[in-house]
Amino acid sequence: MHTPRKVFLLAAAVVIAGCTDTGVDPAPVEIPVLLSQHQGPPGHARAAHNFGAPLSGAQEVPPAATRARGNAIFRLSADGTELSFRLIVANIENVTMAHIHCAPAGVNGPVVVWLYPLSPPAQLIPGRTSGILSEGTVTGVTSNACGATLTELVDRMRAGDTYVNVHTAQFPPGEIRGQIRGNGPS
After folding, report:
1. Cα(48)–Cα(50) distance, rounded to whole angstroms?
2. What is the domain count for the chain?
3. C-alpha distance from residue 163 to each of 27, 123, 172 (Å)
4. Nearest Cα to 70, choosing from 85, 51, 84, 57?
5. What does pTM read for this prediction?
6. Can you tell me whether residue 55 is helix, strand or coil?
7. For residue 43, is it within any domain?
8. Is residue 1 part of a domain?
9. pLDDT-based confidence at residue 183 (cuts at 50, 70, 90)
């Protein structure tokens, strides 16, 4: 047998072995996120430009029994016209959509921004997902439930009246959720 063929067969065997189901659920993965805590110059008015939302099933209403976790990270542009985001998940299966909703902790609320996919309709990602689910830039809102403008949405984010929710085929109302909190200026 030729050497390249041996290497190919060995690589194929490793890939196939890595794809087998062992029947053992993976251990939960913690996803730490450190957002900037820069204070700005002395006398500078503090306004939250960074926001974060740690996501878990325990925050769903009602709570969802899941090992899935996630983090949503948001950064408001200096002029307040763009909100960039990154949504990171771990150990979640069959994701269908993710949004920013408008409601305080413990209350379900309406969708105000689509995060995955970036616009309707829902789009199934079959199987397990771990890593960046979606990232992009928000410049407006889908509904006026938290206000008609991005500025009004950001005000509600600062007040703790918004949350990120990741929906799946197993948990259509949402599998993991987290309240969005301001984390200091950029």
Report:
1. 6
2. 1
3. 26, 20, 16
4. 57
5. 0.75
6. strand
7. no
8. no
9. confident
